[in-house]
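[SOLVED] Predicted holo structure with zinc ion

Edit: marking solved, answer below. Original request kept for reference. I posted the sequence and ligand SMILES and asked for the 3D complex as structure tokens.
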Amino acid sequence: MCHNNPKSTNLKQTTWWQRTIALLTCVSLGLGFVFPSEMLTSIISAAEEEILVCEIEEHIHSPDCYELICMDDSEEHEHSDECYELVCGMEEHEHSDECYEIISPDVTLNSLQFQPN
Ligand SMILES: [Zn+2]
Ligand SMILES: [Zn+2]
Ligand SMILES: [Zn+2]
């Protein structure tokens, strides 16, 4: 998006400040889209604290959680889910956003709205 307009090549000279302004415009546009929002996000996320409030132990069933209870070992039979019994005795649980309480101190907002006076 920063390439020169082909028509401007008809002009014999482009002064250094015209090029500088064009460059600065490109740079500030690029920074404008990326830099401040990323900076803001990092500031806010750094100030936020996630506290685990969930009392359930995190557990995702693995193959070790199942035991083969099927007695059918014929070749025509293929073990399905029903041939296995869950033996871990735990409920599957993966901590989600609801398991965390996010504490973001008001100090963050105040420091962002810093005023000289
Ligand atoms: Zn399990
Ligand atoms: Zn089976
Ligand atoms: Zn949880």
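OP edit: Helices lie at 16-47, 106-112. Thanks to everyone who chimed in.
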